Amino acid sequence: MAAIAIVIVSHSKQLALGVRELAAQMVQGQVSIAVAAGIEDSENPLGTDPIQVYEAIASVFSDDGVLVLMDLGSALLSAEMAIEFLPEAQQQKVYLCEAPLVEGAIAAVVAAAAGRDIHQVMAEARGALLAKATQLGVVSRPLSVVSPITTNTESPTREIRLIVSNRLGLHARPAAQFVATAARFQSQIMVRNLTRNTELVRGDSINQVTTLGVRQGHELLITATGSDADEALAALQGLFANNFGEDNVVLSFPLPFHHEVTPATHGELSGIAASPGVAIAPVVHYQPTHIAITQYHVDNADAEWQRLQSAIHTARQEIQAVFSQASLQIGDAEAAIFDAQLLFLEDPVLLSAAHQRILDHYINAEAAWQAVVDEVATSYRTLEDSYLQERVDDVVDVGQRVLRLLAGNAPANLHLEEPAILVATDLSPSDTAGLDPTKVLGICTTSGSATSHSAIIARTLGIPAVLGVDAQVLHLADGTMMALDGESGRAWVEPESHILDLLAAKQEAWQTAQQEAQATAHQPAITRDGRQVSVFANIGSISDVQVAVASGAEGVGLLRTEFLYLDRTSAPTEEEQLAVYQAIAQVLDNRPLIIRTLDVGGDKPLPYIRVGFPEANPFLGWRGIRFCLDRPELFKTQLRAILRASVGHQIKIMLPMIASVTEVRAAKVILAEVQAELNQAGISFDAAMKVGIMVEVPSAVAIADQLAAEVDFFSIGTNDLSQYVMASDRTNPRVAHLVDALHPAVLRMVQQTIQAAHAAGISVGLCGELAADTLATPILLGLGLDELSVNPQSIPGVKQAIARLSIVESEAIAASALQQDSALDVRELMSTSVTHSA
Known about the structure:
By secondary structure, the protein is α/β, with parallel strands linked by helices. It is globular and about 85 Å long.
């Protein structure tokens, strides 16, 4: 952890915690950050307390320096007073900094994590706004309406063409990742949708990127001009190749379930099924305040621009607080919806247009802002793509937030005394993210769709929702009894007793199923005839492990360590990795932890590692163990951290992308070298730590008997194995349908691997997405797997599926599946088996 510490002092505790969360995410916990914010007064919680500031400084004090960032007013006085309480020797190491709270904190932690000294960290914090202002042109010149990027003729322009494989294309989260990545580099990034024959647009503009209307299968042209053009394109290519991380959050971005709306019968309201579940409660109307705008002349255009900038700055802080709270409540994947809103507020094209309107027409900030927001909203509405049209909700949400701040209005908060069904014309993403599921039992609106961000958040919160019902619902009096079924898309006003009985039964059955799954989640998964199957979790962060344990994981079958290496400018140090591995092992409390060594390169390039040439077939290229063996120092650093973390924990090492015995032996030689170095230095580690491999290459299956003699366990990665067996790139939408782990060819590979492992007396698990598919559970058990490793949310359902089966019937089902002609035939077989067993 970096030695320089940061203290955030703010009147608002919520704001300070949001800033700390954002800053901490930037550096993966490498910098100590303390918060001193708010006061202990439930009626008036805004304020600062010198004692609290003193305690915060003392809690993270470092001889290398403590940087204190404050918001305004009494925060400065409290910080100055707090320093007086410190010993004189420590006072000299504490620095008060006038940098902006949000931008300054982010710049400071990044500089501290990079090993800069306290004066350099202060300089970075102070310059945080200058860099943005320079980029926007507000320092040296007025902004033009379009704020075009000028071409640097001295630097060559590089370009790449990529096909988008995301199910929903560059929707909000991938677009936000694209823009954030493009903005990290000095080069000027431009992008064009070749499929739709659009113009080139700026890669650092969230609105211009989103309105390209990029869908699955579209081909993009991306150009970069500047000194780091190759690195920028490699980083962007990595986002596409890794599917913008969406392979790892399949369940956390739930697909809208399909429901064919039929005409409502008497007493019913028919709508769109947007979030499943049953709710029965009185209705409460929610009407968000809409800010009416009047345009008027101003004498001082510069002052008006500053007023707009101030409102945008505060809006950004509010959204960051929403993001932080939403991360805790609905998870990072869904909370990332608000990343796009933050980028909207930083969009240089939009800001320059607002600035230019104020300068040219001498109009008030509200009118200028509303005009540019309306233009952006219109550009979304005119897109052919219905999903992208729905992003208007996010644009309006952000636009109204800034207008509310310009008008000086307090935020509209919904406080329900009793549980109710919320009735509204529509709900913004911010509105929905702030709902309390214990009070808001259901949502019924007259507009919206199942793919809107509000619907996605409602599903994640578990709040049943029916959208798009007749506007008559808006005339109901508060307190009117309503029932709704989010699965069928129906609502009933003052429902009759037989409707209530049917819905109550459905609700009870659903709750019983959930309770049963949760009740068995923390018990061993044992088949009806007594075979125990381990159910582990696949994780990719520290926060994931807590969810995994809460969901009943018996250990971690796959820790993807790539998150430590991505989104940074240099590789993580041994100490940084050690801290993370120890933290995860601590949460597991002696449960097994299988750490996969770095699996990047090829399809997941690291911007700070130069490949030297582009790879035509990155999935067949320099990746996994091949990459690590060619970078022994990088590999050794990770192995040292894993070995040091192994003391007192059940940690195992797993090597990815093994294709030959030679690779395993070469990796074991390096591991032995690291063990010898640690022994020589007197550093403890688990000398008996087990070493395994990922089986995800057909050659590994073919020589599984030889590989089994070299290692302690196998873990089958069916995601990669499927695409290699079927010779189909799973990121290529033209052939991705061929990549199905239930294809008999893939299943036979799994069978062969298990047989070789068991013949050698070693265990074998499966950590691909197939493990979480309960339709496949009988086949996997029948083939003889010892362990399944799945995403944490799937653990209760998988354990429940195992408990319903016997090994005898599973073996019969597996034998039949291996004889089918196609994956479709296997799925039909499984559906029939489930129906018969039910």
